[in-house]
Design a protein that fits this description.
The chain has ten helices and 13 strands. By secondary structure, it is of the alpha/beta class. The strands form three sheets. Strands 10-9-8-11-13-12 form a six-stranded mixed beta sheet. It has a five-stranded antiparallel beta sheet with strand order 3-2-1-4-5. Strands 6-7 form a two-stranded antiparallel ribbon. Helix 3 links the parallel strand 8 and strand 9. The longest helix is centred in the last third of the chain and has 49 residues. Its main location: cytoplasm.
Length: 361
């Protein structure tokens, strides 16, 4: 009996060691204890399809079923019931430490989780096309709001007229975040980028930004499909068709994502404050605490624009994203109110039916 117990402990230790390459740690082990006592095994979600997801466990990969209520996402930690005369199934998700959430693609009041339990968000842009500053700011807001650390990565630096100038421009767009120019062709910037990418890393960017090519350069092998881009606008087709996770050779894991055409904000107040940290800091010096930086006397933000310290475009972008975020928040509040009202209607209907039933007895 003791021998069996020792064997079980040894098997568990081997499984934990195998999962540690995917980010398993002591805190996760502690939170998983109730599930382990129920005979479930820990797993990390590495890819999701409709009704099925690929997970990695201490014993190897599995394809498991899940219910719509579970809503797993790439990066989630899960409790899985192994096959025992039936299909393996995802039973529960562990609480997410971080989550990258954008507004639903249908512009509904529901958010869409792009990746979970992420440590580093790499905002990827192509140096071969004109920089879309607004898109970078949106992705940075998503990254900061998630609780992860953003890094801005310019790919195809070998095709840029002024890689140093581009890096400086990106640094201005990303106060508090690192910016690095890279080239998968020459190897420029890759060593520095590897030092910046820690833990679970997700690549976010538009189609054609070079995410999969960058991922292959970091992996040291052509594991992810890549495609050509249109010369006129640098846009590419979705060579990555779903979010998928692969281990990095120097530790950590990498999540590649399909190109994002729309990047709507969802509950990103803190993310916006971090993305536009210099405006937030300047606003502390405004004469009026409720200054909205339009025509107020003593406005430190307007003074900084006039002196050239920050651009008017930067302030306009901040206002635009704040309005969008507030609009989505209002839609979400309205949906929640409607759901509460519907629940109360159901409860009231049930109560009335119960009263009528009692009156007939």
């Amino acid at each position: 009996m003791c021998s069996d117990s020792a064997a079980a402990r040894s098997e568990r230790a081997d499984a934990v060691s195998s999962l540690s390459a995917y980010g398993w740690d002591d805190d996760l082990e502690t939170s998983f204890a109730p599930h382990r006592r129920a005979g479930l095994v820990p797993a990390r979600v590495v890819g999701v399809d409709r009704g099925r997801c690929d997970v990695v466990t201490g014993a190897g990969p599995l394809r498991v079923a899940f219910s719509a209520a579970d809503g797993p996402c790439t990066g989630d930690w899960a409790a899985v019931r192994p096959a025992s005369g039936g299909e393996p199934a995802l039973v529960a998700l562990l609480p997410r430490r971080t989550a990258i959430v954008r507004a639903g693609s249908s512009r509904s009041s529901h958010g869409q989780v792009l990746a979970a339990n992420v440590d580093t968000v790499a905002v990827v842009v192509s140096a071969a096309v004109r920089l879309n500053a607004g898109r970078v700011e949106r992705l940075l807001a998503l990254g900061w709001e998630s609780g992860a650390v953003p890094v801005v990565v310019a790919t195809k630096a070998d095709q840029a007229a002024d890689p140093g100038g581009l890096t400086a421009e990106l640094a201005d767009l990303a106060p508090g975040a690192e910016a690095v120019a890279t080239s998968a062709v020459t190897g420029e910037g890759l060593d520095r980028l590897r030092r910046l990418l820690t833990g679970t890393v997700v690549l976010l960017g538009a189609s054609g930004a070079g995410k999969s090519t960058l991922a292959n350069a970091l992996l040291g092998a052509d594991e992810l499909a890549t495609g050509a881009v249109r010369a006129q606008d640098g846009k590419g087709r979705h060579t990555t068709v779903r979010r998928e996770m692969v281990p990095l050779p120097e530790g950590g894991v990498l999540i590649d994502t399909p190109g994002l055409r729309g990047v709507g904000l969802f509950g990103a107040e803190e993310g916006l404050e971090r993305t536009f940290a210099e405006i937030e800091e300047l606003a502390l010096g405004c004469r009026f605490t409720d200054c909205v930086h339009h025509t107020e006397p003593g406005c430190a933000v307007l003074a900084a624009i006039e002196s050239g310290e920050i651009s008017a475009r930067r302030l306009d972008s901040y206002r635009k994203l704040q309005r969008e975020n507030a609009w989505m928040a209002a839609r979400s509040d309205a949906r929640l109110r409607a759901e509460r009202e519907e629940r109360w209607k159901v409860i009231t209907k049930q109560q009335r039916a119960a009263y009528r039933f009692r009156g007939k007895k």
